[in-house]
Amino acid sequence: MSSHDATVAVYALIALVGLVLEVMSRTGRTEIPPLGTVLTRIMHTRSGRIGVMAGWMWLGLHYFAK
Amino acid sequence: MNKGTDGFDEKHREGTRRSTLPKIDPVIIILALAGLFDGLAGNPVHAILLIAVALLLASNVDLPVLVEERTEAVAGPDDGHPFVAVMIAVVYAVAVGAFERYSWPATVAVIAPGVVGLLMAFRATHSPGPEPRPIGRHGAIAWASLFVALGIFELVNLLLQPDLATGSYAHPTLSTLLDPVLALHTGRSVLLFVWLTLGWYLVKR
After folding, report:
1. Are residues B158 and B175 both part of a single domain?
2. Which residues fall within 8 angstroms of residue A10, CB to CB, at 6 or more apart?
3. How many domains does chain A have?
4. Hey, which residues 18-57 in chain A have their CB within 8 Å of chain B?
5. What is the predicted pLDDT for the residue at B38?
6. Mean pLDDT per segment of 10 residues, for chain B of length 205 residues?
7. Nearest 5°: phi and psi at B99?
8. A62 and A43 housed in the same domain
9. Does B84 lie in the same domain as B142?
């Protein structure tokens, strides 16, 4: 396995873990909340809301803008 | 234990000194540091925006931060017309996707909805819906670990590049992996649509 393949595999693993966490959260049998609930909680404060929106804007800038 | 002339011990004085230090919101620190390093990486537009948001947030840091109930502050004009909103997003994504990446038209087209989203976040004094329940320790650790792991892995790959501005095939960052997709008009349009939808989803939180 090349370094490239290994790197992609790790990204895929992280995405898979995120998916598993989300699925587990929806079974109601764990303490883990869905990601949407976490975001809602973070964005319940003014600074959290602004911080998350700044992060979202940064994503757009990073991939598309100068 | 050393006692002062007024009867208070040194430990108590230390605690008092600590409590009088100004508290800086960690979000402000994160935004300022992100802006600083983005500027050092040669992205002045990103740096200016991030640092401006940090300064604006710092200037209002004494305002109440906890929100309690739903108001119409974050309600958008399309609340009853999601189809119209989706159509606007599609037209935006197709039109802006036609612009070359890192061009000034693309930059302006991304900054515009970004600033609107940020203004809505600044203006919103209340969060939609009832107060969300606290996140349990295990849940917080699980999600935080995932995003910290992603951040560290991304940083490792970034530092393994020949330099910060040159992608590596052997150690690609997410940006490098997405380059072939974003080289195409269709790819840019799809990701712009996803980005815009994510922004709308966040505004409605």
Report:
1. yes
2. B153
3. 2
4. 18, 21, 25, 30-33, 35-41, 43-54, 56-57
5. 87
6. 49 54 84 90 89 89 45 49 89 96 94 93 71 86 96 93 88 94 96 95 88
7. -75, 145
8. yes
9. yes
> Is the ipTM here above 0.85?
yes
Q: What does pLDDT average to over chain B?
A: 82
C-beta of residue A30 within 8 angstroms of C-beta of residue B122? no
Q: What is the pLDDT of residue B1?
A: 44
Whether B12 and B98 share a structural domain = no
> Tell me: the pLDDT tens digits for A29-44?
888 999 999 999 999 8
Instruction: Identify all chain B residues contacting A7, using CB atoms and an 8 Å cutoff.
Output: 157, 170-172
User: Does position A11 have pLDDT exceeding 50, yes or no?
Assistant: yes
DSSP string, B90-121: HHHHHHHHTSPTTSHHHHHHHHHHHHHHHHHH
The answer to whether residue B202 neighbours chain A at the CB level (below 8 Å) is yes
Report B:152-191 residues touching A (Cβ under 8 A): 153, 157, 169-172, 174-175, 177-178, 182, 188, 191
Domain carrying residue A46: 34-66
Domain holding B48, by residue range, is 1-65
Distance CA A45, CA B67 (A): 6
With 0-12 / 13-18 / 19 or more C-beta atoms within 10 angstroms meaning exposed / middle / buried, residue B91 is: exposed
The first and second tokens of residue B117, run together, are 């989203």
pLDDT digits (tens, 9 = 90+) for B117-130: 999 998 876 555 67
Residues B57 and B73 in one domain: no
Q: Same structural domain for residues B52 and B84?
A: no
> What residue type is A24 in one-letter code?
M
Structure tokens at A42: 């973070």
Residues A1 and A14 in one domain: yes
Tokens of A17: 């873990």
